Amino acid sequence: MTHLPRGVVPAVLAATIAFGTWSLLLPVMPLAAVDAGASTSTAGFTVGSFMAATVLAQLGTPMLLSRFDFRPIMIAGCGFLGLPCLALLVTAGSVTSMTIVSAARGVGFGLLTVSSSALLPHLVPHTDRGRFLGVQGACIGAVQAISLPLGLHLYQVGGVALVAVVACASNVGVSLALLRVPSVIARESSLDEAGSLPPDEAGSLPPAITMSRLTLACVCIASAGSTYGAVVALLPLPDSPQSTRASFMLAVVPIATILGRLVGGRTPPSSSTRTLSIAALCCAAGLGALPIVGISTGVLQLIAAALSAAVFGLGLGLIMNISIVVAFASVPDSRLGVASAAWNFSFDAGIGSGSAIAGIAVDTTSFSNTYIAFALLAGSTAAAPILFRHRRAHDAPSGEPALTSAPTRTKPSTNRQEDNVEDNESHCSPAHPGPTTSTSDKPRPLPGSAPR
Rounded to whole angstroms, what are the CA distances from 162 to 27, 88, 203? Predict the structure, then answer.
């Protein structure tokens, strides 16, 4: 590729910085709440309120994208994500105020997660979408590796006020970058007026197979999200036995997640369900090792912290990458937006519920027991892909495509490109469709990259 399409750089930059500001305050808010006198369970709800608002905003974003230009929607998301931070300058000691600020920021994050993943496919050639989405996902993972520990460092230096100012200023920068993105308006949303899944299109796979694919993806990513929410909410707390290594571990997890995404991108379609099971076991092993970090000292503690964070992050990256590929393969092109919304909803709802439940569990039991409970949850998720394979073998007609292949249909006479599964993150029509009507229904393999 000799040059980058117009608008790609500011679009990737905007998504990267936006996710960075999210990560900046993610571990800081529970810690600030505890320092303000809140219990551990109450502190967990600062993250829970953020993610609850996020998933509600995600449900309405596809409808907005079908009616308005991407830029004002994303700029509005930056405003919600950044401007409420200024309230922390005067209300940092109030847990109620911090919870409200978190909820307001969650609205902005919900707008940005859906719109940023849908924008990039409009700006690049159809055949390059998987590659550019992979670059965006790597950039987001890299900035999270920096912003998670940076947020804790800034909090230790200047308190929550300093972190709030940095987060607000960063989102102003994102808004300026978005001004250089070309105007894009999506086609009609894949969500119907009731916000429910449209009925199966004629010629697609049997509904049981189609929905079980999407359900498998959502179950796996929701479980992974809940364990991630528990980790980022509990590790930095001062009473946590792992608090002395929290910054180090929160830096290792995103780095390992990037590696997991890259490995997941090379996973052959026939091994997707098996790899999902292995990834769930990796998450379980990483969480199960956290109590060892708490009782260890010196070099042994550092090694245990690195290994547990790396194994957990590797499993998380594998699940993120493969589950979103499975989700997009479960629907025809006209419903990619529905699959994207379902995947994002499951992931963010998992993060929010995981952080809230983890805070309650710590108050009633202990940190070690809470980590072990979440490890068991992650381990039990390994059974979901196995159950899917058994059901698929029982229900699928002979000659059905592989797990990560898109459903096949009879081609109508149209210029629209069908079954190009590289358009894996967008519910919108491509910006460069061209008169390329395919003459074959043979599906092409999905790329392994995911933007989150």
Answer: 14, 10, 56
Rounded Cα distance, 201 and 206, in Å = 10
The helices-and-strands tally (H runs, E runs) of the chain is 15, 0
CA proximity to 27, closest of 149, 199, 195: 149
The pTM of the full predicted model, rounded to 2 decimals, is 0.66
Q: What is the rounded CA–CA span in Å between residue 28 and residue 253?
A: 17
CATH code of the domain made up of 204-404+421-428:
1.20.1250.20
How does pLDDT run along the chain (452 residues), one tens digit per residue? Answer: 457 777 888 888 888 888 888 888 888 888 888 888 877 777 777 877 887 898 888 888 878 877 788 888 888 999 999 899 888 888 767 888 888 988 999 999 888 888 887 777 677 776 665 567 667 777 888 887 788 888 888 998 888 889 989 999 988 888 888 887 777 665 543 333 333 333 333 334 444 445 578 888 899 999 999 999 888 888 877 666 666 677 788 878 888 888 887 787 677 766 778 889 999 999 999 988 888 876 666 778 788 888 888 999 999 988 988 887 787 777 665 566 667 778 888 888 888 888 889 888 888 888 888 889 999 999 998 888 888 776 666 555 544 444 444 444 444 444 444 444 344 444 444 444 444 444 444 444 433 334 45
Structure tokens at 50: 């953020």
Q: 284: which 2 tokens?
A: 């379980």
Per CATH, 1-188 and 204-404+421-428 having the same topology is answered yes
What are the boundaries of each domain within the chain? 1-188, 204-404+421-428
- What's 185's DSSP letter? B
**What are the respective helix, strand and coil percentages of the chain, to the nearest 5?**
70, 0, 30
Q: How far apart are CA 409 and CA 442, in angstroms?
A: 10
Give me the DSSP letters along 67-92. TSBHHHHHHHHHHHHHGGGGGHHHHT
Q: For residue 400, with 0-12 CB atoms within 10 Å meaning exposed, 13-18 middle and 19 or more buried, which class applies?
A: middle
CATH of 1-188, one of 3.30.420.40, 3.40.50.1000, 3.40.50.300, 1.20.1250.20: 1.20.1250.20
Exposure string for 375-391, b = 16+ CB within 10 A, e = fewer = bebbbebbebbeebbee
